[in-house]
Amino acid sequence: MKVGFIGTGSMGSTLIEALIQSGALEPEQIIASNRTIQKVHNLASQYPGLQVALSNTETVEQSDIVFLCVKPSEFKHVLDEIAEKAHAALILVSITSPVLIKHLESSLKCKIAKIIPSITNYVWSGASLCMYGSRIQTEDRLLLEQLMMAISRPLQVSEQFTRITSDLASCGPAFLAFFLQKWVGAAVEETGIDREEASRLACEMLLGTGKLLTEGGFTLEQLQQRVAVPGGITAEALRLLNDELEGVFQKLIGVTHAKYEEDLEKVHAQLFDHEINRPQY
Ligand SMILES: NC(=O)c1ccc[n+]([C@@H]2O[C@H](COP(=O)([O-])OP(=O)(O)OC[C@H]3O[C@@H](n4cnc5c(N)ncnc54)[C@H](OP(=O)(O)O)[C@@H]3O)[C@@H](O)[C@H]2O)c1
Predict the structure, then answer these.
(1) pLDDT at 271
(2) Could you say which of 7, 73, 176, 280 has the lowest number of CB atoms within 10 Å?
(3) What's the confidence (pLDDT) of residue 274?
(4) Where are the alpha helices (DSSP H) in the chain?
(5) CA of 12 relative to ligand 1 center, distance in Å
(6) If you measure from the C-alpha of residue 47 to the centroid of ligand 1, how many angstroms do you get, rounded to a whole number?
(7) Residue owning the nearest CA to atom 46 of ligand 1
């Protein structure tokens, strides 16, 4: 099996490296193309055997599965380029949330899946969000999930919930890192503790908390109850957080969904600017 990657930026290269390092793929099974070809050459010198494709059509021609890892604004260009070579047996996987499966199925004749990865997949952890088009067969789904299982927990989600599931699984690491950065900054400012020490403590805490909530059998509510004994210090601090963060997450969801809608409109206009009506989703 040969797996192609179009776009080896942040997420394309993260997927390639994680799939090789986890043993899911040998470098020889990978072919990749990127607008700036030097990025693929860099990966090939790091992972000898990885094939550098000089064009996106070469990647498509030589692959059984192709991961499309470019930004939404680049989709039209790439789809036009590869349309002729994307034969019916090929599985094309988009990793981009604001490009709908129906957009892709109407642009290409191959099988279409959407899998939204997360930076956490780099350390073979976190979820990958799987959505399948109408041409995907059971064996295709199993093949994709077996591949993603080496670096993540593949979860099938409804495309209707692409944005909110991506917020949680994909944007979440950035949000939590921001939260900890702010907390560590305040700790340094308020107490004079060494920044590196505070940062290390916070990161170890996050790892342990994640384990308790996934392997340790705790729910989010149970974990708070277990730590925050009535009348104690944690309970006081939780009360403050509850008051101060009132409405923040609703606003956060509002912002991510507004940007998603904007991107959807742009992609749709690029792909179907000859049509009058925007598709329902
Ligand atoms: N970053 C994440 O954590 C994450 C998580 C889940 C999903 N995603 C999705 O993944 C997609 C890519 O994000 P990213 O963070 O990897 O962006 P990125 O770092 O900008 O990578 C995009 C890559 O696509 C290449 N490219 C652009 N046009 C191309 C073309 N016509 N042919 C071949 N390659 C082309 C770019 O090449 P150049 O080197 O020339 O710029 C760049 O290397 C986005 O839609 C994003 O929503 C990202």
Answers:
(1) 83
(2) 280
(3) 53
(4) 10-21, 38-46, 56-61, 75-82, 101-107, 138-149, 162-166, 172-191, 195-214, 220-227, 233-244, 248-271
(5) 7
(6) 20
(7) 96
CA distance 211 to 30: 32
CA distance 76 to 20: 29
CA of 200 to the centre of ligand 1 (A): 31
Asked if 57 and 82 count as a contact pair (C-beta separation under 8 A), the reply is yes
Structure token digits, residue 76: 């039209």
50 with 43: CB under 8 angstroms? yes
72 C-alpha to ligand 1 centroid (Å): 9
pLDDT, residue 104, reads: 95
| Model pTM above 0.85 | yes
Give yes or no for a contact between 206 and 180, defined as CB atoms under 8 angstroms apart: yes
| Average pLDDT per 10 consecutive residues for the chain, totaling 281 residues | 97 97 98 98 98 98 98 94 96 95 95 97 96 98 97 97 96 98 98 98 98 97 95 96 97 97 90 54 35
Atom of ligand 1 nearest to the CA of 71: 45
